[in-house]
Each structure stands twice: as structure tokens, then as C-alpha cells.
Design goal:
The chain is 60% helix and 9% strand. It has 173 residues and is mainly alpha-helical. It has one domain.
Length: 173
Amino acid sequence: MMADIRIHLTSLPQLFDSLDPAPFRDKALDRDAEAYLIESAKEFPRRTPLRLVVQGPESLRSSLPDIATAVRAHFALALQRLEREGRFRRRIRLRALGFGVLVLVTTILAGQALARFGSWTGYLQEGLVIVGSVGLWLPAEALLYLWLETSEEQSVLRRLADIPVEFHGPEAP
């Protein structure tokens, strides 16, 4: 079963960003329309096929191919941007992980060096290990968990970049 995302239009310009000077087919979607489509797509499970149903006056029916092309192109471009940004962030996260490991190793070695000065340095050793662990916290979180969020965002954009679009006149259910 296909899940419908319904958008009601009274005129074609409603769908597009009025400040974008690009030709009609290349125009960016209106930010509110884009946010609505993304939030609506997020409501449905990942494997549920989606369909965009445009409802409006019959005069919009002839613009359906242009609407479909514009919507798909907009989200395909958004997906490309997110994938590029993801590759950039992965490189940063890997560098941060390397730096975090370096901090951890340094603090452990410093703690072991302090051990030679007697048992009273035990608290300093533990403190250094905690500092080293904290140095790994953000890179580990980014590599282990944040990719899930990015993966979900990519999935939503991918679905919207391939969404079939139908037109229903104002009397349609």
C-alpha cells in the first residue's frame, strides 16, 4: 500500500521560492513546502512507498509534469548536498577520533609516569584517564550514533527524489 502526502495548491507559484531567480523547472521549492514534504515523509516507515498528491484547480493539471520534475530535482539536489556534507563530516570525525586516541594514550602514559612518584598520585592517574576518555567521547558518539541520523535523513530525501506525483482536482477525496 502506498502512503499519500497531500499538498493543496491554489496556484503554481505557491510551491516555489519566490526569491529564487531560476527558471521555473529549476526553481527551489518554497521552504515551508519543503519542510512540509520532509516532515510528512518522516511520518511513514522507511519501506512504505510514498506518493505526492497535488490537489488544486483543474488549471494546474497541465503543470503536473513540471511540478513532478521540480519536486524530484529539488530533493535529488538536497540529497547530493547531504551526501557531500556527510563525506566531509566523516573525514573530520575520523581526524577527531585519531586526536582523541592520541589524547587518551598521552593521558594514560602520563598517569603511568606519575605512578613512579608514589601511591598518592593514584587520584591524578584516574583523573588523567577520565580526561582521556572524555577526549574520545564526541568522536566516538559521532562515529557510532550520528551516522544513524544522517542515514535516516538520506533515506527521506532519496524517497522524495523518486516520489511519484499525481494530480487530483478540488473535488477529489
